[in-house]
């Protein structure tokens, strides 16, 4: 009998033991050399925490506001696809765990449960992640369905005009189930001549021409706030402000799109400075511990999103596994805050962390 995990990384091993290799590789893998995938985690390790002592931390408040909605902790569930490959209950189990933990789930457009099924399964705040299809009418229908079913925001993924080079999926010749949200609207039965049909599907259906100029069209078809996901630079952060984004998610798609782009935590502060507090900034990529969440918040993130740990929990123990992953991260963050002298999330400041750049500057003094 496998030991109960003591942190979220323990769920990864349970998932590896549970899943067929093809599906485990699909969830864990990154693009090409997987440099960015590895650096997403490693970059957190190069940031140290500067604790304050003798502070009253007898009561710790982790509650956080996201677009006006109160959640129990600064941790949300990132949009990840095809949860039924991890567990038969799919996104419904994930959504219920998010609801139990009083946090927000961002449902992927590539979910294996429909957005209506997820909306009906529990009472929780949900966002809907969108990739724009060549068929704009289908994209518009999906946005309208999300709005009609109570989703509170659209999360536009901006870093995927084409599918990243995920070599494990090509080697495994992965065949993925049809996308439930576009059933009857778009044919997803695409057979690839070689490699994975995932590449062929994405490259034949997504609109690579969608650009900053088209955000106005997206805003015209919905009243929902639009978060833009996939930014890594000062320049793109300013463009997001120009087009009226309600928030920014610093993300490199979990290292699954462009390899050798920077780890997200290393560019978070650049984006935060560009935004200047005008809209909230969030981060995903490489978050595996409560200390990672603390570091991201110290560098300006309002909250983080977690992807793979949720899938590992789902694969290992279904809804209870997802719930336990979220609880672990919350417990670890609470402990980090207590040991760092912070009684609520607003007290986590830039002075609580030291980056490699900070250390280089100090060495020159």
Automatic annotation (TrEMBL):
UniProt similarity note: Belongs to the FMN-dependent alpha-hydroxy acid dehydrogenase family.
Protein's UniProt keywords contain Flavoprotein: yes
Chain positions recorded as glyoxylate binding sites: 166, 253, 256
Keywords, in A-Z order: Flavoprotein, FMN, Oxidoreductase, Peroxisome
Entry's Gene Ontology BP terms: defense response to bacterium; hydrogen peroxide biosynthetic process
Active site, renumbered: 253
Subcellular locations according to the entry: Peroxisome
Annotated binding of FMN, by residue: 108, 129, 157, 229, 251, 284-288, 307-308
GO cellular component, one term: peroxisome
EC nos: 1.1.3.15
Cofactor(s) named in the record: FMN
Protein name: (S)-2-hydroxy-acid oxidase
Keyword rRNA-binding among UniProt keywords: no
SUPFAM superfamilies (alphabetical): FMN-linked oxidoreductases (SSF51395)
Domain of life: Eukaryota
PROSITE patterns found in the cross-reference section: FMN_HYDROXY_ACID_DH_1, FMN_HYDROXY_ACID_DH_2
Gene field: LOC107916409
């Amino acid at each position: 009998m496998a030991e109960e995990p003591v942190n979220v990384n323990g769920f990864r091993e349970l998932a590896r033991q549970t899943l067929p290799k093809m599906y485990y590789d699909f969830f864990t893998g990154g693009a090409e050399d997987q440099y960015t995938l590895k650096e997403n985690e490693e970059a957190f390790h190069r940031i140290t925490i500067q604790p304050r002592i003798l502070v009253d931390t007898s009561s710790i408040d982790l509650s956080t506001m996201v677009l006006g909605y109160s959640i129990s902790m600064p941790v949300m569930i990132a949009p990840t696809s095809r949860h039924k490959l991890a567990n038969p209950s799919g996104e419904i189990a994930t959504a219920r765990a998010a609801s139990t933990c009083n946090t927000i789930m961002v449902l992927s457009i590539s979910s294996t449960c429909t957005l209506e099924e997820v909306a009906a399964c529990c009472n929780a705040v949900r966002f809907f992640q969108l990739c724009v299809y060549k068929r704009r009418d289908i994209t518009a229908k999906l946005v309208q369905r999300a709005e009609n079913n109570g989703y509170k925001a659209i999360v536009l993924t901006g870093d995927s005009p084409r599918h990243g080079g995920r070599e494990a999926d090509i080697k495994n010749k992965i065949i993925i189930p049809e996308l439930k949200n576009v059933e009857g609207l778009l044919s997803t039965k695409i057979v690839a001549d070689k490699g994975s049909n995932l590449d062929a599907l994405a490259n034949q259906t997504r609109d690579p021409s969608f650009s900053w100029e088209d955000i106005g069209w997206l805003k015209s078809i919905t009243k929902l706030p639009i978060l833009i996901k996939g930014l890594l630079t000062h320049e793109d952060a300013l463009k997001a402000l120009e087009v009226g984004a309600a928030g920014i998610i610093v993300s490199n798609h979990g290292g699954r799109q462009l390899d050798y782009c920077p780890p997200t935590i290393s560019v978070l502060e650049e984006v935060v400075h560009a935004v200047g507090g005008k809209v909230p900034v969030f981060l995903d990529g490489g978050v595996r511990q409560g200390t990672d969440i603390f570091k991201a918040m110290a560098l300006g993130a309002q909250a983080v999103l977690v992807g793979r740990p949720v899938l590992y929990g789902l694969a290992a123990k279904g809804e209870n596994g997802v719930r336990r992953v979220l609880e672990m991260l919350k417990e670890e963050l609470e402990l980090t805050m207590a040991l760092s002298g912070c009684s609520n999330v607003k007290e986590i400041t830039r002075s609580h962390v030291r980056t490699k750049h900070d250390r280089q500057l100090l060495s020159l003094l």
